[in-house]
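Intended use. Records like the one below are meant for learning the mapping from a protein sequence to its folded structure. Do not use them to infer anything beyond what is encoded.
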Amino acid sequence: MEANLIFRGMMVVILGLFSIVFAIIFTHDRTQRFAGWLAFAFLSGLCAFLVDISRAALDPVLSDIASKLLFWGFSTALVMGVFKRFQAAYPFRILGLTLGIGLAGLMWFSFGNADIIYRSIVSSITAGLIMVWMIPILWKERRGRLGMIMLALVAILCATYFLRPIIVYGMMDATHTAATYQNSAYATILHVTSAICGLACGVTMLIVVGHDVIEKYQRANTTDPLTGLMNRRGLEKYVTSEMSGRAAQKSVVIIADLDEFKQVNDLFGHEAGDHVLKRTGAVLDTVTSQLGKVARIGGEEFVIILNHVSFRERNTIAEHIRLSIAAIVHPEIGLKERVTASLGMAVVAEGESFSMALRRADFAMYKAKADGRNCVVDTAESDNIGIAGRSG
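Structure written out for the chain above:
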């Protein structure tokens, strides 16, 4: 009895504390929808538990139904939060079907063939079935230690829901009535396992949310807000982590600078210029998505890194980039008008740093400007003449 009271107190503190913490996180940053769902989940769990331990003062059947519905609310909100975190489509039909079948069973064993034990079995199995639908997406999206911990946690929660009625009613052959529920083996095991699982779930999810918040702000520091590409800091981070030593050799660095872009801003406004930059960034990202990385390092200047392409391929790709930029239609400046780009290209030589290759590509880009714009200059060409398509 004393142990049961201890775990009841622990449950109130655990569920209440985590619901408040996740609600504060969501209130501070409304983009953290995962935290919002977690706040709702733990609040539902808290209400379910408070109703469950207050049955003596309430209608035994209605309070039992209410606690189980709130308990399912915890499971459902947790599922919705996980799907939101991974930007996956909500499994409304599956969840609706599971809840519908569970509700039908709950009503039958409440009013049709009243049986408190079967209500407990239906409640636990339904909660487990609701949470099972998280396992496929967690398995698919598992990355690193944190992803594996989330997967293991949900698997353990599901196993707890399925095994609890089997252990209590099958192996222990325990039984209870509405009057003896609070001191029953089922209630004790329910409260003990719920306290342990609630604490483990809350701590794990808090770590996950903290990781998401940190990752968001790191991403904001390394991402250009206008185009969604890497910014200069993001480029430096990528080069440091991915292009050190031999990994950088034979990589191709291209600097693309939009021609006479200041005139676009002066004649059509900065909003039109922003649209031009967004479309250019999107095209560059699409063209080079399987070949390397793209960054906007300031104004109308973009850096493209191509990894391990041949001499012939790099010229072809650079020309494709030039033509793709020139082909973009910008309605803000007129359907017949085009914004072109001058490109400078350099290969990271053996023993050369990325910054040195970038500097050579920058010189080549300025030569492309001097050569008449809308062309590509490759520093590997002995005479440094643009390799293609000079037009205006």
